Amino acid sequence: MTRGTKRLGSLGMLVGASLLGAACNDIPLFGQDAQPRPHDTRPPNWDDTYGADKYFYFWRILPNYSQGEEGKGVVFRQRIDGTDEPEQFWLAPSGKCVGCHSVSRDGKYMAVVELTTRFGLDPSVHVVDIATQTEVEMPGGPLAGTFTSWEPTAEGVPADRFVMASPFGLQIASVTSGLMTTLTETATDGWIASMPSWGPDGRIVYARSHYGDSRIVLYREAELWSIAVDGTDNQVLYADTSRMSYFPEWSPAGRWIAFTDGPADANSSSFSSTQARIRIFDTTGQTIVNPDDLNDTSSAGRTWATWSAVGNRLTCSTANATEDSDVYIVEFDKESGVDFNSEKLDIISTDNFEHIPRWAP
What we know:
By secondary structure, this protein is mainly beta. The chain has helices at about 20-25, 290-295, and strands spanning about 5-10, 15, 55-60, 70-80, 85-90, 95-105, 110-115, 125-130, 135, 145, 145-150, 160-165, 170-175, 180-185, 190-200, 205-210, 225-230, 235-240, 245-250, 255-265, 275-280, 285-290, 300-305, 315-320, 325-330, 340-345, 355-360. Strand 25 and strand 26 (about 340-345) form a beta hairpin.
């Protein structure tokens, strides 16, 4: 495949480099190149409801957490409609750093990753009962892994299963049964599978690369792939050989996949890049949407977008080569793909590092 080619979806389409390039010509990508432009406005049919969501669960790194030790991650909780300061929600009983986390659609469970340090390669996945704020004892104990995503169960169906990246590949686990199955083995055909997101149509989208550690980081290249929950029909969804595509997040209705887009070169990785921006893949039209309001609000990098339960809002974190990462929110018209009214969530964003705001009931 030639440099800059995009491979799109189940139809096996091959689309030239003009697809993303043409869409990006008139929007600023990387800070200093930004040019003033009128921002999009709210369409008349936009749905402004919040649905079941009541909270953001987000990751904050507390400096000098334990008498001079490296700052450790803690999960905080903030009411979406509240004005009080965020409350500390989950601190690892083991004393380790809490990192990536995901919340089940019914708001019952949170899967959290614990590491010895923020850059350690010993991650384990733990499940927290949100109502009681206690850890659930899973059969077989905590699992070796990271980057979790819960099965999007229907309303009234209790959460139980989640997919995770592990040293052994993408695996599905159950709160009641423990480890269930392996979807993709580590380094299958030389590829590493990581960062899964479980979609509403029985498929899982994930990032795939030849380079990196399947548990923590990908670098130099990354493509978006999807696979059925039974491990069959593994196929490329989107790829651009000049860019890295990672941290995919499926929208609740399944049409849109938000992901982080960054340069693909020897010095690039899926750790926070100041040149990263949010892109959105339209699974219906097999095209890329650029959330320009979200990306243009400041020159800092943009990474790891997350969706509201209704799918009409996105949040993401910034990357500016410092320990200060902030959280931004934008309104999103799920019919047209237009975003508007981007702003920083000041009540969450401090001089510390805030990351991965998860919407939850």
